[in-house]
Write a structure and sequence with these properties.
single chain, alpha+beta, 10 strands, 48% helix, globular
Amino acid sequence: MTYSPTHGWTPEQLALKQSAMAFTRREVLPHLDSWERAGEIPRELQKKLAHAGLLAVGVPEDVGGDGGTLLDVSAIQEGFMEAGWSGGLMASAFTHGISVPHVYQNGTPEQVDRWVRPVLAGDAISSLAITEPGTGSDVAGITTRAVRDGDEWVINGAKTFITSSVRGDWVVTVCRTSDAGAHGLSLIVVPHGTPGFTVSRKLEKMGWLASDTGELSYVDVRVPVGNLIGAENAAFYYIAQNFVTERIFLALLGYGHALRCLNLTSEYAAQRTAFGKPLHANQVVRAKLVEMRRQVEVARAYTLEVARRFDAGEDVIAEACMAKQTAVDAAVWVADAAVQLHGGMGYMRETEVERHYRDVRILPIGGGATEVLTDLAARLLGYAPEKKA
């Protein structure tokens, strides 16, 4: 039995979800395997998503977006994942979800016109460079440095694990502009093709194969001072502000993988015969399917509730951390159960659950490792000792 949840959506949001599923069947599924093998998705997919009205939902109309709420975006993402998107496809097609908000929230109208509008129209690709070879979740430890030299910034350093950086057009780079720790970071846009700025390596990964991931090198890279986004030394605040939605997106991705794995496995258990009867004739198989469904339902309900509270203007930093953990833990467990119930076929590249099994492993790491986010939630919820003066 295929489970396609409709509860929690308004009629308009359900239409968005159905549009995303139809787009997937038409434009994605015939090509996804080849994109996975190629290690990146074609640039024209961005244009197709834009034409379908699925690329810029959730972005204000006055900066080139289609408007809408985080729940509207959630309905679209649920539709994509339920219909069979890979994690890497989602990460690359929607990398702008973590990059362009910094520009339209904090930048000038000229910066919005120059960088944001082309991305939302599907004509350009953006990325966000935070992580460095020596720093992961420790944003305050960033060492890539930008020094003011007249009317230019001179940038030196390196970034790694940067999604969409290989095929991208510009990258919002987090740079150290002061020695004041977390309060000494700034956002500077670096266009591809700038002298000294190179993709030093395209990285090979366990999963997210359709997503191009790069290691970036900055050697005396000069960009105009006008490429600074927002206030100097204010990047840590900007990043923290947008980490909430990024973590909700990862939670959506998590329960989306789990939902897809549940449906693939329930169909397989009904069709596969072993010892003269279908797999789901065995109580132990049915029990596992129910547990998979339970985890999907719990993760979905909590994630959408946190998204609803975010749309209502509530402070949900801690809740976003917990939603991410709830959903990605479900993704990891359900994907593992899916492979197990598929038996030997679950280990084969030709079987879709094998891809989901690899794709979900990054989720407890990306966007802040589970251990780091749990400690952050503990402090926000008052469960940690107060720091001494």
